[in-house]
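Minutes, project check-in

Agenda point 3 was the complex the collaborators sent over. CS summarized: two entities, 605 residues total, and the question is how they sit relative to each other. Sequences were read into the notes so everyone works from the same version.
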Amino acid sequence: MKHGRYPFILSFLALPVGLYAWLVILPFAQAFQISLTDWSGSTNTFNYIGFDNYANLFKDDRLVIPALQHTGIILVVLPVVTIALGLFFAFMLNLGGRSRQGRIEGVRGSRFHKIVFFFPQVLSVAIIGILWKQVYAPENFGGLITGALTAVGLPAPANGFLADKRFVLAAVIGVLVWSAVGFYLVFFSSAMASIPRDLYEAGIIDGAGRFQMFFKITLPLLWDSVQTAWIYLSIVALDVFVLVYMMTPERGGPDAASEVVGGVIWKYAFNDGEQAFASAIGVVLFFAALTLAVVSLRFGPRERIEY
Amino acid sequence: MATETTTPERAPARGGGDPAPRREGAVFNVFSHGFLWLWALMVIIPVAWIVVTSFKTSREIASDPLGLPAALNWDNYANAWTNGNIGDYFLNTIQVMVFSVSGTMLLGAMAAYVLARYEFFGNRIVYFGFAAGMMFPVFLALFPLFKTLQNVSLLNTYAGLILVYIAYSLPFTVFFLTAFFKTLPTGVAEAAIVDGAGHYRLFFQVMLPMAKPGLIAITIFNIIGQWNQFLLPLVLLGRNPEDAVISQGLANLALRQGYEGDAGALFAGTVLAMIPIFVAYVIFQRQIQAGLTAGAIK
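CS then shared the predicted structure for the full assembly.
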């Protein structure tokens, strides 16, 4: 069996690794290279200008600065809200039910809830965008929320939620949370399922309420999963763009009120023909994602609880 | 609460518990049920509402957003299917995915198998090279990728899109399947080797059939992922609108709806695009949930 081992390994790896290197690794590497030039993207000539694009990045108050602020807000709000809701719902579904004979179980209908909550996760962003754009639409376009608000006599923004600078970013974040919660509910549920029931039963005997059980037993044992979820959601937050593209006026408006980093890259690359500048923003985004992943892995809990 | 139990070995010393926590529990139960139902409604209502809206005339959509349609207006669906080209987009997507999904699975399984089961120089490097791909922000690569395909005349072709889909699905597929191949027992493989099976026969006739549950989970994952792909076709398949895949076609329809004002057809198209995903989800929801979340568990 030693015979022909290396030819076999090579024959199995050549195609996948080759394709991956050609279409994934190489374009990313080229993006780094492009970011050091003044290339527009449409011509064949360019000069290397060092780190000028990076220096100019933070002087662009028209798009880049608002985008950094908004992506920063999403980066904080999306993980916090999604993880909090995900943990809460997972705890309810798995352990929140009445304790029959001292045993801990989920509330009734937990399977149904899991199926429903998770559904947005399988919808494409295009569908989610069209759906929620209409939900947020102004009343005279048949919006759901504005229509409902008016029906009960409350004031609604005249141009809908997405054309209003005060609401547009919150509206986008709301949709992001809406589509992500189900995934983290299922994710935390499967992690909770591996916590031995004895621990909760011991907790009940000692007279612990649900709040105590959640904070003293569940949360410490779930810390690894929370950390993983944090990294995943941070990457999602940094990559937010398609939803903004689908839903908001001017793909980031009104008045750049929902501009995000991904959208700015898009605009510079495909509308303005400033390929090099767009790549520089992308490289910054890449290192932001890398830093976040490293930092959250570093500052996790130092000791692992075995059970 | 009964003090006699049918499962005595699990029964705790104090069957009932104190009355105080129980009252706290009752309040808590109402509260938690309320929240769960609230969220369930927040998922169901917008989706159900768009289905209802898709049967309304454009006038009804604008004037009476909360009401029911006076009559089921199937015209929207006819318009979406023919004028909106949703039918063509379906066929285009299937044409692409037959090749991209099977290609992803074949190449992914081959790489994952070798990485999981063979020790060789560079094994870790290749593995982490694939795994790191899950973290790259795809915008960064969009333009160089556009140029790469242009240089080899694969821009605006299905062949190009298929290759890109495969390449961008490999990180997660390899990551997931490597872990899966590692869990398979070694005994069967050893027996096959004793019986004289070569490396290739071992893979195709012994290991692949054994890896079936993992392969199914990740296939479903890739089908959903590639069906929903939006950014890559938008950039790499942008020139001929009639060649669009489903998400992209739907976005085009949304854009056109702004000019033509046929909102009903847009929502009918949206519902049509949702149906296959919904059916697949209801049938395979266990595997989908397991497959999607398993990747996140290291």
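Noted in discussion: Confidence is low (pLDDT under 50) at residues 1-20 of chain B.
Follow-up: revisit at the next meeting once the mutant set is ready.
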